Amino acid sequence: MARSLFRLTVCLTLIFGIFGAAAVHAGTRQITDSAGRPLTIPENIKHIICSGPGCLRLITYLGAQDLVVGVDDMEKRRWDFDARPYFLANPQFRDLPVFGEFRGRDNPEKIISLSPLPQVIFKTYSGSGTDPVKLQKKTGIPVIILEYGDLGKSIGQYFHTLTLLGKVLDRRERAEQVISFFKEEIRQLKDRTRDPAGGKTCFVGGIAFRGPHGFQSTEPGYPPFLFVGAQNIACPGDTGPALRHSIFSKEKLLVADPEVLFLDLSTLQMGRDQGGLFELRTDPVYREMTAVKKGQVFGLLPYNWYTQNHGSVLANAWYIGKVLYPEQFADIDPETKADEIYEFLVSKPVFGQLNASFQNMAFQPVELN
Questions:
Q1: 244 and 148 share a domain?
Q2: List of long-range contacts for 351-355, beta carbons under 8 Å, 24+ apart
Q3: What is the C-alpha separation between 66 and 159, in angstroms, rounded?
Q4: What is the pTM of this model?
Q5: In this predicted model, what pLDDT tens digit does every residue of 119-153 receive, in sequence order?
C-alpha cells in the first residue's frame, strides 16, 4: 500500500511538472551544477534540503539555513562530542524532519512527503549514497551536485561551489564575502610567516578519517601547516589527493623526532584507554620523543567532522602560527580569533561550546603526565 502511494505521488509530481511547465516557464531559469549538468530550477528558491557531508555547512556559511525544510539523520543524533560549528550555531536543525541517512543515503519517499516540498536538493559527495540522477527522477526535484572542495589544492573548486550556491540562492554578495574572507585570512597567515624566524619541525596526529584514529593518523597536506609554512615531517613534497590522509610510521616519527607535536582532539572519541592521547601518555616510543619530554604537545580543534571544517582549519592555523612563531603572532589571542571566524561564518562565537565538547583541551598544551 505504501509503495503504491509512493508511486502515485511520484507520478503526480511528474505530471504536474509536465503540464505545469508552460505556466511556470517564466518562473524558471537554467544553471549548470558542479558536475557540468544543465538543470532547470525555480527562479526564486524558498525551500531546500542538503544531502551529503558538509552540505549544510556550506548553506550556513551563506546564511541560508532558514530555507532548509529537512535534514539527514546526522543532525538528529546526540553526541558526547560534536565538532560542527554550523550545527552548534543552529540547533534548530535537530527539530526538522528527516529525509534520509547521513553520507547522502537519501529516501525519495520521505523527501516528497516533506511539507513544504523542497524546490531543489543540494548534494555533496555525489559518488556515494543515493545516485543523484535516480534521486531526481524519483522525486521530480532538481538535484544540484556540489563539489565540496577544500582549502588546499582544491580551493578553486571550493570557491566555485560557493559562487554557484550564491547564484542559485540569490546570495551572490554573501558568497563573494565568504570567498574574500577566506582569501584574506590565508593571505594574512602567509604574510606573517613569509620569512619565519626560528621555524620548528612539527607533526599533527590523531586526525579523523571516516571516524576517529590514533596518533599515527595524519595528513601530509594539512592546510593549517601549509598556510604558515610549517616544516611538516609527514609531507614528502607531494600533497596531491592521494596524500590527503596517511598512517605515519611510528618508527619514522621517532627518527624524525619533530620539535613540536599537535594532537587533533577528534581522537578523544576513542575513549580513555585508546586513541592518540592515550598513546602519547603510555606508549614507550612516543614517551622517548623530544616534544613529549619537553611538553611541546598542543591540542587542536577537530579537522574532519562530517568532512572538512573550513572555519576550524583557519582557527587551527592561527593557533599553530602562534605556537611555531610566537613573535609574528604576538598580537593574536587564538580563542578570540576563532570566535571571530565562527561569528563571520556561522553567525555565533561557538569556540567555547566547541572546546567544552573536547575537555577544554583545544589551543592548550596537552597534559601528558
A1: no
A2: 351/315, 353/88, 354/82, 354/83, 354/85, 354/88, 354/301, 355/301
A3: 22
A4: 0.90
A5: 999 999 999 899 999 999 999 999 999 999 999 88
37/129 Cα distance (integer angstroms): 19
One domain, residues 112 and 214: no
Residue 338 belongs to what H/E stretch? helix 334-346
Confidence of residue 81 (pLDDT cuts 50, 70, 90): confident
- What pLDDT, in 10s, does the model give residues 227-285? 999 999 998 665 444 457 788 989 999 999 999 999 999 999 888 889 999 999 999 99
The whole domain housing 267 covers 194-356
DSSP secondary structure, 289-329, as one string: SHHHHTT-EEEE--SBSSSB-HHHHHHHHHHHHHHH-TTTT
Same domain, 98 and 227: no
Q: What is the dihedral of CA 187, 350, 263, 198, to 10 degrees?
A: 40
| Residue in 309, 146, 327, 286 with CA at minimum distance from that of residue 223 | 309
Whether 209 and 266 have beta carbons less than 8 Å apart is answered as no
Nearest to 135 by CA among 105, 172, 157: 105
Which of 119, 150, 182 lies at the terminal end of a domain, its last residue? Answer: 182
Looking at the structure, tell me whether residues 288 and 321 fall in a common domain.
yes
- 217-226 pLDDT tens trace: 999 989 999 9
Continuous segment of H or E residues that includes residue 94: none
- 239 shares its domain with 309: yes
Higher pLDDT, 238 or 176: 176
Q: % helix / strand / coil in the chain, to the nearest 5?
A: 45, 15, 40
361: which 3 cell numbers? 583541551
Please give the grid coordinates belonging to residue 328: 609574528
Q: Are 295 and 311 in contact (CB under 8 A)?
A: no
Contacts of 273 (CB under 8 A, 6+ apart): none
Length of the chain: 369
User: Tens digit of pLDDT for each residue in 19-48?
Assistant: 333 333 459 999 999 999 999 999 999 999
